[in-house]
Amino acid sequence: MVQNLPQLTSLKGVSSGLGRLAIPIIVAVVVIVAGANSFYTVPQTDVAFVTRFGQVIGRDAGPIGPGLHFKAPFIDVADRIRVTTDTFELPERKAYTSDTQEVTLNIGITYRIPPTAAYHLLYEIGQAGNVDVHSNVMKLSNEVVREVISKHTANEIAGVDREKVVGEIKVGLAGVLDSILKLEISAVQLNALEFSPQYREAINQATLARTKSLTAQQDATRAEIEAKTRVTQAKAEADARAAQAEGEARANLARANADATGNLARAKAEAEGNLLKAQAEAKGIQLKGEAEAIATKAKLEAAGGPEGYIRLIEAQAKQNWKGDVPQVVLGGQDGPGNAAQFPIILPLTPPAKK
Questions:
Q1: What would the pLDDT profile of 82-126 be if each residue is shown by its tens digit?
Q2: Could you say which DSSP state residue 74 is in?
Q3: pLDDT at residue 335 is higher than 60
Q4: Which of 110, 234, 239, 314 has CB 3.0 to 4.6 Å from 186, enough for a Cys bridge?
């Protein structure tokens, strides 16, 4: 027992030394933990509020923006929420159209949390965080989608009114989510749209019937077009033949007119030529008579008058007479005031030979 006393003494010394070191170590650990817990960071995509013992600090100042911030360690807690644009797809859901057709839809929603809605979403709507926002959006969207789908027929949803239906869903969701969650809806996408097998079969049959009807209409239209084409071709051929016949008739008439015109021109030319010839002959006779008259007058004047001309002719006759009986006798009337002015030529009949 005595021999163990030095060992016990040494253990007590070590224990007292460790006791003296424990307090500084504990203090250092507390300081480190407190220092690590005295600041927090807010990402660029988020905003935050700080609570102390569950009470929000600086609510009126608005949400805390991105960056490094300090808080009281251990008693302050930073609650963050993402405010950038987010897109998620709602779970597949079924709805009924106005004509009682079952429709299965997959809808995607693109939304944004404005910073002014951060406090409302963190502390006034269920649990804090974006996961809870998605849960609330899904719950609120169910009734909106069903209500919009129930106002339209299956043909409208699947056909030309599809964009209109999507627009109505967007408007309905925007109103509900803004009034309850204060979210801003950017877009609504109809990612998938399926109908019941019975409706799809009915659509296929209707499409087939429409195709057959359209084919029949196209055949009828084609036959009508072909008939009109044949009528048009026949009319064109008839018009061409009529035009050709009319052209030939006009050509024949033109040739006949040309021949008649030529004959008339030739007859007219011949008549004019004959007239000119007759006029020329008459003019020649006239000129000849006038020349003979002028010559006779000149002879009369040269003989000293009619009596002298008669005596000249008688003298020439006597000179040229060869004993033959004259064929003509020149004579005139004598007497006072009745002298012969022109010679009278009378035929004489020669005496019969014995």
A1: 888 888 888 888 888 998 888 888 888 998 889 988 898 888 876
A2: T
A3: no
A4: 110
Q: How far apart are the first and last CA of the chain?
A: 247
Q: Provide the domain limits for residue 36.
A: 18-80
Return the pLDDT at 340.
46
Let me know whether 74 and 162 are in one domain: no
**Strand locations in the chain (E):** 39-42, 46-52, 55-57, 67-70, 76-82, 86-89, 93-96, 102-112, 184-195, 328-331, 344-347
Whether 72 is in a domain gets the answer yes
Q: Which of 184, 180, 194 is nearest to 143 (CA)?
A: 180
- Taken in order 73, 75, 76, 80, the sign of the CA dihedral is positive
Residue 57's pLDDT band, with cuts at 50, 70 and 90, is very high
CB neighbour class for 203 (10 Å; exposed up to 12, middle 13-18, buried from 19): middle
